[in-house]
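Morning. Coffee machine broken again, so started the prediction first thing and wrote up yesterday's gels while waiting. Chain of 214 residues, entered below exactly as on the submission form.
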Amino acid sequence: MSTAGIFDRLSARYDSWYERNRIIAENERRLVVLMVKGSRRPLVEVGVGTGFFASYVDAEAGVDPSLGMLEIARRRMPHSLLVAGRGERLPLRSSAFGSALIVVTLCFADDPGSLLRESWRILRRGGTLVSCIVPADSSWGRRYKELGRRGHPFYSAARFLTRKQHLELIEAAGFYVEEELGVLSFKPWEEPRREEPKPWTGDLGFICVKAVKY
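Came back before lunch.
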């Protein structure tokens, strides 16, 4: 079942998370920018949401099924092409993009595998995929899942992936994994602190994988 309706109703609440959690958001933003650096253009974010990450990496395009989220994204990205559509069936031409970015979108997708295969389709040969998740098997993933069980409107709709599942889905879609980095080594109950991206250590709350379409 599509989660677009939830994000339509609560798009402003969703976007306010970045302001309410500035240190965490900055750590995540720094990692995304690093992973995207040097990627081929044009760049599209699949599941662009309110455009927070896309605006920092100067994405030329974004796709999202929620019109409410896209309305906020348009204010952040007035010169980018923003299109309503589902990641499992992207309204974009094959081999049209140099890079694709996916940030915490797979856990809300009806079919994460199809979304990744569609991302592969729209990329040119040699194109880059950067896919980021909150791992289900991290302390942050377990925290968010518990909040979901208690009725949190966003986390209750999420199906978090483990790090292993994430890597397997990317490879099954036809990509070759080149790099994996993460942030948020501190626990959800600890005081947030600034961090630099680092290799997987066994418990990081936000990880990004860079992979290539050969």
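The beta strands are 43-46, 61-64, 81-84, 97-103, 123-133, 175-183, 198-199, 206-213. Going to sketch it on the whiteboard this afternoon.
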